[in-house]
Design goal:
Residues 1-19 form the signal peptide. InterPro entries: Peptidase_M4/M1_CTD_sf. This is Peptidase M1 membrane alanine aminopeptidase domain-containing protein. Keywords: Signal. With 563 residues, this protein is an alpha+beta fold. It has four domains: 20-142, no CATH class; 248-356, no CATH class; 371-451, Immunoglobulin-like, CATH 2.60.40; 466-562, Nuclear Transport Factor 2, Chain: A (Roll). The protein has ten helices and 30 strands. It has helices at 2-19, 172-193, 229-238, 252-271, 274-286, 303-324, 328-339, 347-356, 466-480, 494-506; strands at 21-29, 35-40, 47-52, 62-67, 71-76, 81-86, 97-99, 107-108, 116-124, 129-131, 148-150, 152-157, 160-165, 200-204, 211-213, 216-220, 248-249, 344-345, 371-377, 380-385, 391-399, 404-411, 417-421, 425-430, 445-447, 491-492, 511-520, 525-534, 539-549, 555-562. The strands form eight sheets. A five-stranded mixed beta sheet has the order 12-13-14-16-15, with helices on one face. A hairpin with a 5-residue loop joins β29 and β30. The longest helix has 22 residues, at 172-193. It is elongated, with a radius of gyration of 28 Å. Mean pLDDT is 90; it is low at 1-18.
Length: 563
């Protein structure tokens, strides 16, 4: 019986391998770092191929069908091979190395996301080819293996083979420290999602975000020279399970959001919650005004929206789920194990799986709540909810003796306002552990002796520079209706003046409940965020504005507003 089982297993494996499509091509990296491709098409039957955008055929057997965002579709029949050039954006490279885009071969549309065997002859007179090697090509890939070539040194530690440029060897120690972080992150994720092979690692100054593809991670070498190394390193390692090297989710922001969430959990595990506070604060500050995950359902997101969802909103959304349910990361592990063989999934399939396990679905149409603090009597403050849903919210209270306590308040459709006595209270913070994803956190702090609208948030205190504080306060007082005009000490060009007048008019029937301000010296830019509450419908809106100042910081020369 055992022999029959082994024979059957062997038969299945042979059948699986033989069924995989083989892609055969000769690829030359020419003297201009462009790719000269000769791809052999063994089968002469009619098929639809997805080809690089630069491909321009001159054969009647190759019929153009349509243009995609970064490629083209053709119907090809009775053609033995195709030749084409792929132009490389050399602004991202230098004379020491070459890194390709993934889209340099033609792939059949009907098995675009299936595993394939690649028989590639890659050559360059200028560079040694680092990836893919002959050993790398023994693996199967879904898409064209990224090509890396150049004058690289390497070291091998913790099961990773790490390549770096000779001219960056001064950062070798930092790369070795990063290698330890890779191994720690790999072990942490393996504990939940299972063991996988370790990819090759390349550090290169390619002016691009770090990227994980199949069997390869290319880190922008700047990651070892700057801040937040642990987050960047572990994010790419997480893509070994969620991404091109793991399971591919149709809605790409979900893939990136899960990888970033896992990176956050790794950082917490290694360094504690406090190490993540600054990162969370900044992310939430950038996401003020987001009301739901509805953008996930949009087919054509612009780059800004995709980035906001992927690296800001979704990681924090998953983090709030983890805080309220410590088993959530294990539920993600169950999802991965359920989908890993098929390699492809989608938001709908994920929610079907979650529902089958009694797990909360990823709701895209459900509005986030908002809570804010306001004075309501001489010895009381009111905390208001804008949601009809029921929430239990943690409130951190610091008393007059600097003693801190935590209490919970319940909100519902019937109970939208809760009152707190403040006779012996110095400070109140709503949801101090970020367990609830809110529309705004610009209005979550109350301090006994501080009424400045910019000190009601936990992101940035008003800039210590006197002129920045002055301009910020003048704008806040004008938009909130506290003053009729902005001080004549601040000169304002006509266009930004008109923008401010329109903003004031649009929000004249709303109450400003909080704000945040920060200043970037390099660009003379003042970033302003204001939260408003519409008392008629209890709706929260957030206004984002960037004011460009003159060098002396006495004049507003431009104002861009996001409404």
């Amino acid at each position: 019986m055992k022999r029959k089982f082994l024979f059957f297993t062997l038969f299945l494996n042979i059948t699986f391998v033989s069924a995989q499509e083989e892609i055969t091509a000769k690829v030359i990296i020419d003297e201009n770092s462009n790719l000269q491709v000769n791809q052999i098409l063994k089968e002469n039957n009619k098929a639809i191929y997805i080809l690089p955008k630069s491909y321009s055929p001159n054969q009647k057997e190759i019929v153009f069908l349509r243009e995609l965002s970064s490629s083209k579709e053709y119907e090809i029949y009775n053609v033995n091979n195709i030749n084409f050039e792929v132009i490389t954006n050399t602004s991202k490279l230098n004379t020491d190395f070459f890194i390709s885009d993934l889209k340099y071969l033609g792939l059949k549309k009907n098995n675009f996301l299936d595993f394939k065997k690649f028989n590639l002859d890659i050559s360059s007179k200028k560079y040694p080819v680092i990836f893919p090697s002959k050993d790398d090509l023994k693996e199967t890939y879904i898409t064209s293996p990224k090509i890396v070539a150049g004058n690289f040194n390497f070291f091998e530690e913790n099961g990773f083979k790490v390549y770096y440029l000779e001219k960056e060897k001064e950062f070798l120690e930092e790369m070795k420290k990063a290698n330890i972080g890779m191994n720690n992150a790999f072990n942490y994720f393996s504990k939940y999602f299972g063991e996988k092979r370790k990819p090759k690692i390349v550090f290169a100054p390619n002016n691009e975000p770090s990227e994980t593809t199949e069997n390869l991670i290319v880190y922008n070498s700047d990651v070892v020279k700057g801040k937040n190394i642990e987050n960047t390193i572990s994010h790419e390692i997480a893509h070994i399970w969620f991404g091109l090297d793991g399971i591919i989710i149709k809605e790409r922001p979900l893939t990136e959001g899960i990888a970033e969430f896992l990176s956050m959990q790794y950082v917490i595990n290694q360094y504690g919650e406090s190490q993540l506070d600054k990162s969370i604060n900044e992310r939430l500050y950038l996401l003020e005004g987001k009301k739901s995950l509805n953008d996930l359902r949009k087919k054509d997101l612009d780059a800004k929206s995709t980035k906001s969802l992927s690296y800001g909103l979704l990681p924090i959304y998953f983090h709030t789920r983890q805080l309220s349910n410590p088993d959530f990361i294990n539920q993600l592990a169950d999802l991965y194990k359920n989908k890993e063989k098929r390699r492809k999934t989608s938001l709908d399939e994920i929610n079907i799986f979650f529902d089958s396990k009694g797990i909360e679905a990823i709701a895209t149409d459900e509005f986030f709540p908002d809570f804010f603090i306001s004075d309501c009597a001489s010895n009381e403050v009111c905390i208001t909810s804008n949601s009809n849903k029921s929430y239990t919210v943690e409130i951190a209270i610091t008393d007059s003796n600097n003693e801190k306590t935590l209490k919970t308040l319940s909100f519902s459709k019937e109970q939208k306002i809760q009152k707190l006595n403040i006779e012996n209270v110095n400070r109140i913070i709503i949801d101090p552990s970020y367990k609830i994803l809110q529309i705004s956190r610009l209005n979550d702090v109350w301090s006994k002796n501080d009424t400045n609208v910019f000190n009601k948030n936990r992101y940035f205190k008003i800039n210590s520079k006197e002129e920045i504080a002055f301009i910020s306060n003048e704008i806040a007082n004008y938009l909130s209706g506290k003053t009729e005009n902005i001080s004549d000490k601040i000169k304002i060009s006509s266009e930004p003046a008109n923008e401010l007048i329109e903003l004031r008019s649009d929000n004249s029937k709303k109450v400003m409940t909080g704000g945040a301000t920060s200043y970037v010296e390099k660009t003379n830019s003042l970033f302003l965020y204001f939260a408003f509450n519409n008392e008629n419908n209890n709706e929260t809106t957030v206004i984002k504005a960037i004011a460009k100042l003159n060098a002396e910081k006495t004049s507003i020369v431009d104002l861009k507003v996001e409404k």
